Write the structure tokens for this entry.
Amino acid sequence: GSLARILYQCLHKDPGQRYSNIQQVLDALSLREQQRARRPFLVLSVLGPLILMLALFPVARSGIGSIVRQTQQALANRALEGDAVSAGLLAVNISRELEDRTAEFVRYASDERLRLAMLNDQEKSWDQRTELRSLVDGWKQSVSKQRMKMERPMDTSWFITDREGYQIYRDPPSSTIDERFHWRDYFHGEGVEYDPEKVADDIEPIVEPYLCQAFISNATEKYMVAISVPIWDEAHQEVIGVLARTTLLSELLDEWESNIVGPETQRQPDRVISLIDSRDGKLLGHPWMSTSHLQKATKEKLIDRLVVSGEVFEQISVFRNEDSGKTQSMLKLADYQDPVGQFDEKTFGGKWMAVFTPVGKTGWVTAVQERQESVYEPLRLMQETLLKYGLSAIVIAAATTAIIGYLLNPTVRLWSNTNEE
């Protein structure tokens, strides 16, 4: 016991409670010294393992940190590799779709019946151009039926202009028939849309198949594109007109979205595909770019903000200077900001991983992007699990050590019931 307890017992008022002789006092003092000598060892036996675990904690933390960084890099690489495959497939599919549509129109433009119908109906009004309308309407209906059967995106319109740029046929019909469109890029193929009031009157039509610059549809505010091919005279010496078809770029993306992104319920916001113009960095197609969103952005004069950052634009613009045969040129970014995030922070804000791939010779770039936090989700769960089990191990080890020390050292129980000096 403590010295105070020994003295108290020596001076107890009841003689029966006092030590009976000096030897008992000496024994009590000896026991006290033994207990005092054992205390550091008893404390160490309880706290030692805990101290050791705490001492090893920085080492374990450093090791875990290294593992986390390596795992994070591995997850990023795996995600980017998967997105690279998807971006490459998307670019190839869009390029093939455009090539198929072009080849189809080259065949129609070469059909002798089209040249004859244009010559026969050139002086007639729209309602009297029965030969031209019947021929091209039949082609369009056949193509539409076939595309619908194959679940392929439909054309928005078909039209024909004469060599001066006057629209002589359009399906669906509209007020644009008989208007002049020689200023349009799909007619002259010079890569720009001229001012209708200032364009040269003698501008020449295209002489080979052409994919025009993307332009905004007046009806939907969405970007669309026209594929145009020249119609030659019988001697193949002079272009007598231009045959063209238009389609919304969003529909080109929609056709492949389920294959690239997955089922509709899993599309957003974790994985997104989009189309970008490498010539100015503008978004041409994106899941957010619905008619209502674009009309609002246009009304509020914010449409020009749908552009990739200057840094990203600088990197994708090099695609234009590369060999057009390098269809698998790619740009991989582990930290990408979606331009749509400034309009919809909740769905498209934050950091993304993205892969960009050029679409043939079009000047477009496909982008497949994946939310960064979604890619790192397995790592986050692993860290939480490690932390939970690590803390549990410390608590269990400390409790077990304390219990074992208490059971194996009876003097601890005695010591816990006495007072310090």
User: Anything to note?
Assistant: The CA atoms of residues 13 and 78 lie 85 Å apart.
